[in-house]
Amino acid sequence: MNKLIETRNLTKLFPVRRGIWEIITRKPQKYVHAVEDVNLTISSGEIFTLVGESGSGKTTLGKLLIKLIEPTSGSIYFEGKNLNELQSWDDLKQLRRKAQMIFQDPYGSLNPRSKIGSGLKYVLDLHNLYNENERRKKVYEILERVGLHPAEKFYDRYPHELSGGQRQRVAIARALLLKPKFVVADEPVAMVDVSIRAQILELMLELKKEMDLTYMIITHDLSLAHYIADNMAIMYLAKIVEMGSKDSIFKKPLHPYTQALMSSIPDIKVRKKERIIIQGEVPNAIDPPKGCRFHPRCPFAFDKCKIIEPELKKVNDRFVACHLY
Amino acid sequence: MTDKLLSIRNLSVKYKLRDYTINALEDISLDLNTGSSLGVAGETGSGKSTLALAIMKLLPKYAEMKGKIIYYDKNLLELKEEEFRKIRGSKISLVFQEPSATLNPVMSIKEHFLELFKTHIPEISEEEAIERASKLLEETGVPGARLRDYPHMLSGGMKQRVSIALALALNPDLLVADEPTTALDVLIEAQILELFKKLKRERNFTLMLITHNLGVLAETVEEILILYAGKIAEYGKIDKVFNEPLHPYTKLLLESVPSIQENKKLSYIPGSPPDLANPPKGCRFHPRCPFAFDKCKIIEPELKKVNDRFVACHLYYE
User: CATH number of B4-91+170-305: 1.10.10.10, 1.20.120.1770, 3.40.50.300, 1.10.443.10?
Assistant: First the structure.
């Protein structure tokens, strides 16, 4: 399989706003460490799943990959091209035709004042594809394809007239309208009801097959990753702690954080649960702990973990960032 | 262990809006024994939260309630607000989904406890109240020193621990928890679930846990009640219901949840939940049910005892 996306030491820091007092006293500028030193490869045709808790930087990483935000340092190669070099409006437009995003919140991602149809048609208007009549036809086609029929009826509806599941279908339609190669889906089913979730996932899988898509799916839900992923990465406080094929990670998670996550998922098949309870909460991303970022909560931490930050290293069939290995 | 704490009989809740009426709950009957734990599962709009609010008598004015909620021989629906206020928060208390919404942002944690104690136990001294508050906090895993903090200084998990401490402050018989872990991350969710189990062992209150997350219920409760579109679809011991679901909705719902224990294609429920202003005739699930036959479209199935549980489905009547 050929590489579609590759990142090198990708880092994104968000400056923290300083108050007047901090400016006067010349306190150093602080940063929220959202993504740090991420090296990953996504091959065409795979489903790469990024798992992490809130605040781990998974959404920021997703946005970086399709250049919705600029990295602080490091680079992203999309089909071998360095995205840092794309600067002009036209370059960016070319990229948008290849890389799209589906957002988590279908209530926030659709403009409440524009009809479903005109919102979708706007995408084609912007990219100046087809003529007026064809555009409408294309929108009908995609609406039907994502299961919103009759398309003529949905074309003239407003987002508030649709249910959460239907809205998410519109969001999928919008992302796929330009026939992209790569789609980042940020928690695509987190906001829809349980009975609808499987419908949306199946739709995404069907469309992947039909349109030869590559997905990066961002989720906090390991059972979703287990269902859908080919390869996966687990993030903790801006860093990837474990990365590899889904099968190997689920068979034997190596990083203590991954192990804890796996033992924590509530599962309908397990009545009495033996779980690894991790004390405390995710530390502040402005001032991440020294050494391994997980060490204050890690049940296996030893001295080295407090001082030296482990690198992401190849261990057998995967990558792990932990001194235990 | 078999004494009844709370019985609900034929409870119906209607939201009377200007142009239409929403049938949020219809004909709900259930029994809670002292010390038991009941999980209420259902999708958005199935009436889960309405049920919690009805028990707490916190429904808005335009809600019309029928039926009975019997708590120790008293019908809560007939109690006057002043009388019920003595029960709410002390004998029956509620933990909400969103801890930030439970806690008042301009009151310190200490003030929350003081207000609660002073309302229900007027003769309590401030020192005693504070002492009890810090004990409660420690019991729920929050350092006692955090009493001085304001809600914004605590993380989501901490806030939820504080709201659990507040709910348990007066030793309630019944704790109703409405999606208590939905707003939290997985690891914190695990901590809170363990906390619930620990507190329940130690204090032996009755727990009613409302959630859409079937996995959470699998490990925390003994009995489960599945709501669909405001009605009970299935009600029984959770082992039985999860191992051998009878109602088609329960069956499909369980099959649409991914599990890391197995590699199976998910099945899904076609369509979406009905509009409760205008629910379908007959069985409310029939438009989405793969087993529906003619009768289902006309006659609404009653909740009937089938072996070890209650099911509302025509498939199981002779």
Answer: 3.40.50.300
